[in-house]
Amino acid sequence: MRFDSFEFVVLYVIVFALYRVLPHRAQNGMLLAASYFFYGWWDWRFLSLLFASSVLDYACGLMMHRYPIEQARRRRLWLCLSLAGNLGMLGVFKYYGFFMDNLVAALGAVGIAIHPRTLNIVLPVGISFYTFQTMTYSIDIYRGRLAPTRRFFDFMLYVSFFPQLVAGPIERAGHLLPQILQPRRVTWAGFTEGGWLIYWGLFKKMFIADNAAHLTDRVFAAPQDFSAAMIWLATYAFAVQIYCDFSGYSDMARGLARQMGFDICRNFDHPYISTNPQEFWRRWHISLSEWLRDYLYIPLGGGRGSRGRVFFNLMATMTLGGLWHGAQWHFVFWGVFHGFLLIAYRLAAGEAGDRILGASSRWRRAAAIALFFHLTCLGWMLFRFEGQHLSDFLVLGGQLLGDWRVGPEFWREAARLAGFCLLGLGVDVAQYRMRDDLCVLRWPVWARTTLYLLMYLSLTLGGSYEARNFIYFQF
Description:
The protein has two domains: 6-184, no CATH class; 196-462, no CATH class. 71% of the residues lie in helices and 0% in strands. By secondary structure, the protein is mainly alpha-helical. It is built from 18 helices and no strands. It is globular, with a radius of gyration of 23 Å.
């Protein structure tokens, strides 16, 4: 069930109407039922995985809490059970086929033939998101940063809360769970702020992202049929598409939650104005970036130790971050690419790096933004081009060095892409300059009304009404 579907609108109207009249405990029960209905809409069989993750981490959390921090061995046993169970489900449903196929190919290359059992299973929607979310609960209890809850159904709601269930943001238990356990207030300010975030996210998804997808899909389906100029234009279109698609979902998730009195973390902070890879990962998919930093990079050693060790930690974190996105080699290559960018930036750090990449002047910052945006787009090319062998990407690279013809089709598609982005870019610039995602609500009435009307006309006359899932549903 997508946020931009009629079925979801009906569900949310019913949920919100009931939410307004029910007391706190009944609200949580109703939200839990709605969340399971929302997730089961895709395939009710996968509700068992959601339930199993909830039972596992709820039980492991209580068992870890029975032992003081000094008894680390016993606490570690329950943590390992939690991690093994969650990662085991993720591995079977998301990565089994990938690793088996590559193992068969590797052994076949040296003359060993094996015939492993194949599993004809469908990837559960959002499994990477809710698996990482529930793992934070167990890990934080193990570290002594969180006390477990004894309210099992409230914990189930934390794992399955429908606004952010299938594509994040990845919430920490220390942030979302207390909001579930305590009564919440529905206010007019929260309703209007949430309404704007929903409307803004819907506009970014249906008008900008889905329209940019037409060019992206056509070019990357057969890149050999297009010039280097068209491939680059499609890559720019994908940069627009993935940002507006994913940030649009995150905005709608925040808006839905805010209308019910919840505060969901912000997942994007204008990532395309980044001047370096460290800044980019502080602005892009913030909840995943912070998860990888706190639960993978720092436990590996972080920035401590020798230069080689730090570089290994960075590369391992980004490679696994790429693999988190999908069991395909082009996601791994994308993660490795960003690992190299982070390592290169580390090597350039210091006075020399500051002189080259710093923001000591407006023009220097603009040049750094332009440079890193194009490096980011190179990464998006790896992300979007579904090649499974390094040779595929070498062929694509050869095309980029070849035919640079710019014909009428290029200018027509470039003008079309710019037209779709113009209004959204204006709002985005205003939000950045005012450091406020809700700045539109503080505009004069005439300016606000004009913007709402332009967005409505854009959606009505030019919005894409195809049944197109959000990009991050597949992860």
